[in-house]
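ARCHIVE CARD
SHELF: 3
SLOT: left
DATA:
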Amino acid sequence: DGRLKDALNQIQAGKYGPADKFHPIVEKLTVGDDSYLVAIDFAAYLDAQDKVDAVWKDEAAWYKRSIEVVSGMGFFSSDRTIHEYAKEIWNLEPLPFLPANITYRKPQWSDSADNLTSLASGLNLKK
């Protein structure tokens, strides 16, 4: 399967940006240590992407799969994972969230103000 070689040749030819910028990636995949097994899995990745593209073109199938994936994600919640790490690995107990301790003040925007600083100053925590 020559698709990886074609992709690497395109990268080296500068098709996706300055070739020298991507040289370390090309070198790692061709003569270095492919520790992420990109070269080995590349054909399977492209085949899987072709399947994704086919489903994307079938709107009803895409929506169905999207709903199925989202509905099955509950167990893999990041909140649950963080809670388990805190309790089982770090031996920490969560602190209660007290919304009464937080106030919000609408930021004062001006043309000369740094928007990020203004936004950040709009959030104040009571001590």
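SLOT: right
DATA:
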Amino acid sequence: WFGLDVDVTLWSQQISFIVVGIIVLTSTRGLLLTMSKFFIWISSSKSSNIIVLFFSQIMGMYFMSMVVLMRMNMPAEYREIITEVLGDLQFNFYHRWFDVMFLVSASLTLALLYLAHKREVETADQLS
């Protein structure tokens, strides 16, 4: 490369780790923005404490799912590092449930979008 000796393996790992970090940060930021809008919409003076606890639980689960997802896509030598840090966590169980929950939520989203579209068409037919 232009007369430079570049370690492609090293730089590709570093750049991919930075890109994954950016994706995790922006995804978490998007979740926080959505949750804050929802929090403002449903909050009252009496229910604010329980809502904060609920959203804390959601954020913890979201963070753990991002770690599991990131671990699933890493090379084997780096997976071992995350496994050592998190301890005896059954990653295969969480990988399977991650896939199941994705399929269920995608199916439900498709069904809800279909029903919303069908309702909109029926409303438009009734108006004309």
